[in-house]
Amino acid sequence: MSTYIEYSFQIKPLQPASDILIAELGEAGFESFVENDEGILAYIQKEEWNKQILETIRILQSAQFDISHTFKEIAQENWNETWEHNFNPIQIDNRCAVRAPFHTKFDVDYDIVIEPKMSFGTGHHETTHMMLQFILDHDFRGKSVLDMGSGTGVLAILAAMKGAAHVDAIDIDNWCYLNAMENVARNDCSQINVYEGDASLLGNIKYDCILANINRNILVGDIPIYIQNLRENGTLYVSGFYAEDLPILSKKCAENGLKFEKNLQKNHWVAVKYVF
After folding, report:
1. Do 152 and 262 share a structural domain?
2. Name one GO biological process term (predicted).
């Protein structure tokens, strides 16, 4: 079992500081985040951590925000207690709910049950929320789907619930891989296969739709690979970056034959639909 370091950040005002802090912590190696009314909880594996890690976090030096923090060790087996205390169910467009097993079932078309543990993807973060919105509006019946950077598997699960014939979910993190396996089984989505790895696993497989909620740098690097694995007239949905980065992503997509169709924006984050 891995040991994690939990940072508790108290933030005033919450936005946009919380979003900026999460982005910078993610670049520094933090894996998971839980947002609350006072700020965020952030988690990094102890073996990846050192006491100087926050020196690279620029927003902590900003006079615009009041950010304080504490940190402690937390064993992986104690994660359930942490997220049960902080994880509230959500609804998207009154059509989809994402909840934990101990929450009451929602009367919606798609009721997704997950235990996020150390994985990203509860629907609370803007990027996941917008990707779920895109999936709700897409016709997945009989389609083949790739979910890159799948985290909890929530995007793959909704695509499967909407009729996708085959879904591959891939994440480079072992804990996310194991967690997604559990969540796929919990939601009885037998058409989803979960893999541990990155885009190098793809080979020559072709998909009708690719979902990638990762970060700007990985997306820019992997878009040429996604194109090789996207069928003609296929759709690419991406998120995990700020609105100011949209021109960079769109330029890379255009260079690889993708056409911009639509984007969503929530606070400073965006999700984008491209068609091949």
Report:
1. yes
2. methylation
Q: Residue 243 maps to which CATH number?
A: 3.40.50.150
> Is 206 a domain residue?
yes
Residue 182 counted as domain residue: yes
With a CB cutoff of 8 Å and minimum separation 6, the contacts of 251 are none
Beta bridge partners of 34: 41
Same domain, 151 and 265: yes
Is 128 within any annotated ligand binding site?
Answer: yes
| pTM of the predicted protein model | 0.76
104 within domain boundaries: no
- Side chain identity, residue 130: M
pLDDT string in tens for the chain (276-residue length): 568 899 999 999 988 888 899 889 988 888 778 778 899 999 888 888 998 999 999 999 999 999 999 999 987 666 556 666 667 788 999 999 999 888 899 999 999 999 866 555 566 778 899 999 999 999 999 999 999 999 899 999 999 999 999 999 999 888 789 989 999 999 999 999 999 999 999 989 999 999 999 888 889 999 999 999 999 999 999 998 889 999 999 999 999 999 999 999 988 889 999 999
88 is in an annotated binding site: no
